[in-house]
């Protein structure tokens, strides 16, 4: 049996990322896959990219990873571009769309937001049909078959849901969780790259981290959208809006 840590949506929050990496190491998990949004929002996109390259075996693109390298008039995006530099921006441009493999006889597909786009946002409270569509394939995927297990990021809300024998999970967010103010990731356990049916499990993990250190780092960088970012870190509510 092998364990794979699935992380997503780091968003330049290094204290949260370090906490998750330490938790993964303590569990003796050596294989890490990242589902995108390494950059943006937080103050340290550059460090996040470097850490992902050093620790993650496979990485896919997120909506921020796709958007930040583009030409823009946005002062916020330009700030992040300046932090990243040309080499890291080129790395983001080259990230693939999905990760696909068999595990314990199940075909697993991982992507950032949906099998069709990094910009299509599907929430756990959206229609049954919308969530079921996440198991479909598209021209952006590696194989033209429906998945048995789908994992994604983007919405910053961790979940596990079942659909007539198919399993959907969201890993939540490492650096910008929007449920409770703790970093989140997932662990898959089973026989990696095996088409033979065998034991398989998905675990969601919450990791406390030093939020005030993350706030301090953002303040020191005098980053754009500072107040909204700090509210999200402290309250786990999107742009500080009350639930």
Entry keywords:
Purple Acid Phosphatase, chain A, domain 2, single chain, 10 strands, five-stranded mixed β-sheet, Metallo-depent_PP-like, alpha/beta, 30% helix
Detailed description of the structure:
- The chain is α/β, with parallel strands linked by helices and 243 residues long.
- The chain has one domain (2-240): Metallo-dependent phosphatases (Purple Acid Phosphatase, chain A, domain 2).
- Helix content is 30%, strand content 21%.
- The chain contains seven helices and ten strands.
- The strands form two sheets. It has a five-stranded mixed beta sheet with strand order 3-2-1-9-10.
- Helix 2 (45-55) runs parallel beside helix 4 and helix 6 packs antiparallel against helix 7 (226-235).
- It is globular and about 50 Å long.
- The model has no long low-confidence stretch (mean pLDDT 96).
Summarize it.
The chain is an alpha/beta fold and 243 residues long. The protein has seven helices and ten strands.
Q: Tell me the strand order in the biggest sheet.
A: 3-2-1-9-10
Strand content: 15-25%
Mean pLDDT across every amino acid position: 96
Element-level helix/strand string: EHEHEHHEEHEEEEEHH
Corresponding CATH superfamily: Metallo-dependent phosphatases
State the helicity in percent bands.
Answer: 25-40%
Low-confidence stretches: none
The CATH first-level class comes to Alpha Beta
Supply the number of structural domains. Answer: 1
Distance between the termini: 40 Å
- Biggest beta sheet summary: 5 strands, mixed
Structural class: alpha/beta
Work out the helix count: 7
